[in-house]
Amino acid sequence: MQKRVRVIGIESSCDETSVSVVQKNGNKIDVLSNIVKSQIEIHKLYGGVVPELAARAHSDIIDKLISRALIEAKTSFKQIDAIAATAGPGLLGGLLVGVVAGKTLAHYLKKPFIAINHLEGHALSIRLEQDINYPYLLLLVSGGHTEFTIIKNFNSYKRIGTTIDDALGEAFDKTARLLKMGYPGGPEIEKYAALGDENRFQLPMPLIHESNAHFSFSGLKSAVANIVAKNRCTEKFKKDLAASFQATINKIIFTKTQNAVREYKRVIKSKKTVKVVVAGGVAANKSIRRSLKALESIEDCQFLFPSIKYCTDNGAMIALAGIERFERKKFNNLNFKPRPRWPLDKNAVFMKGKRAVGE
Ligand code: KG4
Ligand code: ZN
Questions:
Q1: Tens-digit pLDDT profile for residues 90-111
Q2: Same domain, 20 and 101
Q3: Is the domain of 117 the same as that of 140?
Q4: What Å distances lie between residue 16 and 19, 127, 155, 268, CA to CA?
Q5: How far apart are CA 240 and CA 235, in angstroms?
Q6: Residue 55: which domain range?
Q7: Distance from residue 210's CA to the centre of ligand 1 (Å)
Q8: What is the C-alpha separation between 155 and 345, in angstroms, rounded?
Q9: What residues flank ion ligand 2 with Cβ within 5 A?
Q10: Which of 85, 4, 59, 156 is nearest to 317 (CA)?
Q11: Structural domains counted in the chain
């Protein structure tokens, strides 16, 4: 195995453009640069990501971010071993920008191009900071994804839970929009929730009595909409409804994570404490973190949270996935097409509504 590997990682699947240079030297991983340009200012006018605007914003800036990432990493193109770019899942326009940039660089520099599954990036992101052994359980909670996946080994993933409708971040964003709060909604809800009465409103907890690790959040959003329609939207009302929403989410996540940990133990058949990595933008929520920590004494598990900068979308996790693939010579052709839908677990069925499509 080559001793020192340096890879550029390009991320443009949603509303963050990011380019990073990561180095692996033996077992030591160093993030030499990780430049992230958020598009929040563009999308907040609309209360959600507008795909066409996202794609344009990625394309306006991608070349500058590549230059900045190399300068900050004090790295020349010559010192780069491969170019990795997120090729799915995500918004097609954005994916095309990153993938075309990556392929162009790879072709020009005569270096391998590596197409990365964005979810693999999230799955490995904890390894940018900690040397954690496989297997572990990933809880990914972001604006586009909500799933439990067993990371058995590199390139060996088993999804054991997912949402059958909205992603958790989407539920936070939609609730915040109904309550006329800013975008992104998660941090706003969290702030208001800390000041409100969580017992004032009763909200439904879809699928809570099912012993599986699947989620459903769309009924919760409808319940919030009904309450909003019947009340005056005062500051006190916003605080109390945000607190009730946050408390309901905490209970759902707690119960479903408990189910997922039990399922993990059945699949992995190990007596070791289960390591649960929580990644994605929603993992920034301190209230969810506190609530999950309480599960540690009940289920013999341990929660690990990557730093916020590696929880949200970033090029470093894509570069790291690129390094792992580079070391195994898993390269892609320059005709690789972006995949807007690309499950990490190839055998996972597509869940929509109450049952898996095709069942
Ligand atoms: O991972 P991320 O940055 O982007 C993707 O969706 O891929 O996640 C963004 C999501 C948004 O829905 C945002 O509202 C949510 O993460 N979020 C939070 C918090 N911070 C960000 N949700 C709850 N509490 C937070 N503190
Ligand atoms: Zn993401």
A1: 999 999 999 999 999 999 999 9
A2: yes
A3: no
A4: 10, 21, 25, 35
A5: 9
A6: 4-127+312-327
A7: 26
A8: 9
A9: 142, 313
A10: 85
A11: 2
